Amino acid sequence: MGKKTLLQVVGLTTYFFAFARTRIVKAVDNVSFEVNIGDRLALIGESGCGKSTVAASILRVLPPSGETVSGKILFEGEDLLPKSNKEMTQVRGRKIAMILQDPMMSLDPVFTIGEQIGETLEQHTSLRGDSLIQRIKELLLAVQIPEPERRIKQWPHEMSGGMRQRIVGSIAISCEPKLLICDEATTNLDVTIQLQYLNLLKDLQKNTGVTLVFITHNLGIVAELCEYVIVMYAGKIVERAPVMDVFDSPAHPYTKALLDAAFGLQDLRKRRPIPGEPPNLANLPPGCSFNPRCMDADDRCRKEEPPEVTLAPARSAKCWYPVKA
Ligand SMILES: Nc1ncnc2c1ncn2[C@@H]1O[C@H](COP(=O)(O)OP(=O)(O)OP(=O)(O)O)[C@@H](O)[C@H]1O
Ligand SMILES: [Mg+2]
Question: Which of 115, 156, 188, 295 has the greatest number of C-beta atoms within 10 Å?
Answer without folding.
Answer: 156
